[in-house]
Amino acid sequence: MNEIHFEYEGKAARLSLQSLKREKAQPAIRRRTSTGEVSMVRVLNGQSQSIDKEKLTPDDLINGDPEIEIESGGTLPELELFTPAYLIPGEKAEIAHEFSEIEIVHTPEGEEKERRPRVLRSSNINDVHPIKFGKTFPIEKAFTSFVFRAVYQLVHDDGIGYEFLHGVAKRLHDKKEVALLGAGPKGNAPLILRDKGSPHRAFLYGELGKGGESDKYRLLLLLSNQELKLPAKPE
Amino acid sequence: MPKPIVFTLGKKDFSVELGRKVTKDDLYGRVKRVVEKDGQPLDRGLLGPDGSLLPRKALSSIRLDPEGTPVEPEEVLHDGKLAETRPSSFEESAPLEELPITALAGFCVSDVYPLEVCDLPKGLYSTWFAYRKGPDRKEALVLVREDGAFLMAGHRKNSPLVGLGVVYDFFDAASTEDDAEEDDDLDFAMM
């Protein structure tokens, strides 16, 4: 469960943001043959890591097997005793003690556009600046224009929170709209739910119960990172 | 290349073409993370207890049964019960059921495919999708707009209506799943 600092019509509150269960639970999957359970295991693949494969000639491959280390292939290393490391590639790999993490931004066509130091983002949903209720869109327009990757539910913790969120849900329900939410001082930045997480555009969908359940509400935070459209055709 | 797929709505079959999956990278580009030293990209690897170094590329994942590499077809069990292999979406027509557009609210999309040559009436439909034959079929929605149609595969989340007293059993307090997290975090200007 997360907490979200949310502002609507000048009132801000810290509220509960709940993860939701799948409607159909995922089954526990096992595989077996007549001899017993099948499991995934990591083994040494026996490919030589000490040669530059691009420098091999056809004769090298015809006259020998320089790309194969037959003795190690298929052996099971005790990986729990190993520690992750970055290695300087070469005929004899060396451990790198100093390194920098870089992000390379590519265009949709695959061309390199930018190189920058890795950006480590922090969660911004429970920040000093509340998540703001922004521009609203008709439900059909928003739902047919964006791909929603994840959904969370806003829930109250007390009676004041209930009235606050029920009011938000009622407004969205009555107007058949969804609201774009924004983070940061200006309330226009994408939301980041977890530290080191990815930014997502967030929409708030509100619904009230029908008939005797009109005192109940459903407020969903819908996260999107993609428009529902086709890529531009290459010129 | 588009692949033919058949949907059944009522008693009528609709033959459409499933286009290539559309990802965020196709629309906005992608961010690749590399680790460098003096401009040279580094390899991921492992440091052994004896000081030996093992490049990550030297490892492969394989399936083993107690006698080694399986020589017979594997049986798949779902919750302890034998799961039957079912045809893919290209081998069996999938029924469509019309839904209100608000049904998109609880659906988490993992894959998006454009549907070409689609004569289905405008609207939202629920169905199933399986790119390959096997025991697993994904829940899917077909959205038909005036300017085109898309198939979205994924899964639905259960979201309860809440009253003054919240029943917390409905929520996934122990969730380790994070649909929203991906490696790539390219920001995009989609507004």
Supply the key terms.
heterodimer; A: about 240 residues; mainly beta; Ku70, Chain: A, Domain 2; seven-stranded mixed barrel; about 10% helix; elongated; B: about 190 residues; eight-stranded mixed β-sheet; two-stranded antiparallel ribbon; 1 helix; 15 strands; disordered C terminus
Can you offer a commentary on this structure?
The complex is a heterodimer of chains A (235) and B (191). Chain A has 235 residues and is mostly beta strands. Chain A has a domain at 2-20 and 122-227: Ku70, Chain: A, Domain 2. Helix content of chain A is 12%, strand content 40%. Chain A is built from three helices and 13 strands, in the order E-E-E-E-H-E-E-E-E-E-H-E-H-E-E-E. Chain A has helices at residues 58-63, 139-143, 159-175; strands spanning 2-8, 11-18, 29-33, 36-44, 83-88, 94-95, 100-106, 112-117, 131-138, 146-155, 177-182, 201-208, 217-227. In chain A, the strands form four sheets. In chain A, strands 1-2-10-13-12-11-9 form a seven-stranded mixed beta barrel. In chain A, strands 3-4 form a two-stranded antiparallel ribbon. A two-stranded antiparallel sheet of chain A has the order 5-6. Chain B is mainly β and 191 residues long. Chain B has one domain (1-29, 84-191). In chain B, the strands form four sheets. In chain B, strands 10-1-2-12-15-14-13-11 form an eight-stranded mixed β-sheet, with no helix packed on it. Chain B has a two-stranded antiparallel ribbon with strand order 3-4. In chain B, strands 5-6 form a two-stranded antiparallel sheet. In chain B, strand 14 (138-145) and strand 15 form a beta hairpin. The two termini of chain B are 31 Å apart. The interface between A and B is large, with 102 and 98 residues.
